[in-house]
């Protein structure tokens, strides 16, 4: 029977918990295998070990069962004409079906394209057209954090010409050949009248053989959207080699073994779910626990207790919510003594929050990470043996086989000295292959260094490195707002605001916030300044929410006479950020 060591070359050092950083296998060699090969090897090594616990549906599946499900779904997709390289979009929550659908794509060689279930119909259409998706796998109900389940049928009606006929057609998305429905509605939605839709369960025929689907380590496995899709979307193309090795390097840093039970409330449509959740667990044989389909504070805390989880993932807002729930529910900290490690990332992390997390949830080896979708996850990461002050004031040091530089904003090839702020750029195996069908954006993001003969990724983040090699992220050069781990691009909101009949001009910035890291603030210039009022601000918030969704709604709306601009007409957003701080 083949093991991971047989399939992946070079051989993998034995994983073990250690008492000294000198004993870690942190800098082991890279693996040259596909995700399917790596995951199948784990299933063969730990066939009867629990792979996924779906708490909401009260289901547990072993690695052998998950591997079998994925093969069957892959064969079902192939039987319906889906081939290697085809794009298969998924709009699913944190469920067994969500995992298996992505794993099936990896096995088939199709490219998985996870979509945010909160997307409005226009955003779904934009995403599907951007990647020319051949197939969409979608749940009957969209389950979003802190909201009631909502039927996805109205979304499907927006781009499927006729749901009641067997052969699917879509003038809005011409490439679309199949829509597969996962019925998660518990009987609330009857999908049988919609003959255009294929029931996910009908793909589980037991057929597991695939033909002509040899998958290379350099093949693109995942397209991760880095922004919304009503304006120009960017899809980061991540290869099998990217994902296998980032999973192994991060898992080693976390000292994972098959004895770990990992609580994953972060969504599968984020790289935090696909890499930190699914890929790491599948590489190390650790049990992956989904507390709920979408983030639910109570369900997450209860899963930590009942499943005796040893690790947990989350963005800062998730940890804030968990701490508040534990306090309000008078839950004893002793209930979390089994928690050993985890990850906090996705937004600015305040030292005060880290201290609270350590006090209440223990987590002696909690890691802070920094990275982006384009780097398949983390580029830097703290280590359990780092000095405590570094663990709460930095994002750690670079992961193995990864380089991070601090460079001049004006000349990205000029490396700045230690202690000087500049733009963070990244090089190594973890870099995306490029943005899907967007060579201009790829060229703008990647730079070639003729001296080192390497490609470097411009992150747009401002940072500084200290004498010990630890990095701090001090701000962002690019304008993206990170609210509770969710990337929000101001241009999307600005384009919607200026569509309003009363708005002449608009600019959107991120405003520091203790809970969310950042909140959205909008500065608007009205056609008639006398119309500024509380009701006007509420009207604009509702306008944005109706077009883009709740996540994109500005928390603060400031009506101003004009926007500060340079001589060339560009808005000086740094002035607006400072002005917002003074107004709040």
Automatic annotation (TrEMBL):
Residues 1-21 are annotated as: Disordered. Residues 492-570 form the AMP-binding enzyme C-terminal domain. One of its GO terms (molecular function) is medium-chain fatty acid-CoA ligase activity. Residues 39-436 form the AMP-dependent synthetase/ligase domain. The keyword ATP-binding does not apply. Keywords: Ligase. GO terms for biological process: fatty acid metabolic process. Pfam families: AMP-binding, AMP-binding_C. Transmembrane segments: none annotated. It comes from the Eukaryota. The keyword Ligase applies. PROSITE patterns: AMP_BINDING. SUPFAM superfamilies: Acetyl-CoA synthetase-like. Belongs to the ATP-dependent AMP-binding enzyme family. This is AMP-binding enzyme. It comes from Sphaerulina musiva (strain SO2202).
């Amino acid at each position: 029977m083949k093991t991971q060591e047989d399939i992946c070359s070079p051989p993998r050092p034995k994983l073990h918990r250690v008492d000294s950083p000198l004993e870690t296998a942190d800098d082991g060699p890279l693996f040259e295998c596909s995700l399917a090969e790596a995951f199948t090897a784990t299933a063969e090594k730990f066939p009867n070990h629990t792979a996924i616990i779906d708490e909401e549906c009260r289901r547990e599946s072993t690695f052998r069962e998950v591997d079998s499900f994925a093969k069957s779904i892959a064969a079902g997709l192939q039987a319906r004409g889906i081939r290697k390289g085809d794009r298969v979009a998924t709009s699913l929550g944190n469920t067994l079906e969500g995992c298996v659908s992505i794993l099936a794509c990896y096995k088939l060689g199709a490219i998985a394209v996870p979509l945010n279930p909160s997307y409005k119909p226009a955003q779904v259409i934009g995403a599907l057209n951007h990647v020319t998706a051949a197939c969409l796998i979608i749940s009957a109900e969209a389950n979003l954090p802190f909201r009631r389940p909502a039927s996805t049928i109205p979304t499907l009606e927006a781009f499927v010409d006729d749901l009641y006929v067997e052969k699917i057609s879509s003038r809005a998305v011409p490439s679309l050949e199949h829509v597969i429905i996962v019925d998660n509605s518990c009987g609330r939605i009857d999908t049988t009248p919609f003959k255009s839709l294929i029931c996910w369960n009908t793909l589980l025929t037991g057929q597991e053989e695939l033909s002509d689907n040899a998958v290379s380590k350099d093949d693109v496995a995942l397209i991760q959207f880095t922004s919304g899709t009503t304006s120009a979307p960017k899809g980061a193309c991540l290869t099998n080699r990217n994902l296998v090795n980032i999973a192994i390097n991060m898992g080693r840093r976390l000292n994972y073994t098959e004895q770990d039970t990992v609580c994953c409330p972060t969504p599968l449509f984020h790289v935090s779910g696909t890499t930190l959740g699914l890929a790491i667990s599948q590489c190390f044989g650790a049990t992956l626990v989904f507390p709920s389909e979408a983030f639910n504070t109570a369900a997450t805390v209860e899963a930590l207790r009942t499943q005796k989880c040893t690790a947990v993932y989350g963005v800062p807002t998730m940890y804030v919510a968990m701490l508040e729930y534990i306090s309000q529910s008078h839950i004893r900290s002793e209930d979390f003594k089994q928690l050993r490690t985890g990850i906090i990332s996705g937004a600015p992390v305040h030292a005060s929050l880290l201290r609270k997390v350590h006090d209440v949830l223990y987590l002696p080896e909690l890691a802070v990470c920094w990275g982006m979708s384009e780097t398949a996850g983390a580029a830097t990461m703290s280590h359990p043996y780092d000095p405590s002050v570094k663990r709460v004031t930095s994002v750690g040091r670079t992961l193995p086989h990864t380089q991070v530089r601090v460079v001049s904003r004006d000349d990205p090839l000029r490396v700045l000295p230690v202690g000087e702020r500049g733009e963070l750029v990244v090089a190594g195996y973890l870099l995306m292959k490029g943005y899907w069908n967007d060579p201009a954006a790829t060229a703008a993001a990647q730079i070639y260094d003729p001296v080192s003969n390497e490609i470097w990724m411009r992150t747009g983040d401002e940072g500084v490195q200290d004498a010990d090699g630890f990095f701090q992220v001090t701000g962002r050069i690019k304008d993206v707002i990170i609210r509770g781990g969710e990337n929000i691009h101001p241009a999307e909101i600005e384009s919607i605001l200026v569509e309003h009949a009363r708005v002449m001009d608009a600019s959107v910035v991120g405003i520091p916030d203790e809970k969310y890291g950042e909140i959205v603030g909008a500065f608007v210039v009205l056609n008639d300044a006398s119309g500024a009022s509380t009701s006007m601000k509420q009207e604009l918030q509702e306008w944005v929410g109706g077009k883009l969704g709740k996540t994109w709604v500005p928390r603060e709306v400031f009506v101003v006479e004009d926007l500060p601009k340079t001589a060339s007409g560009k808005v000086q957003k740094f002035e607006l950020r400072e002005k917002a701080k003074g107004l709040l």
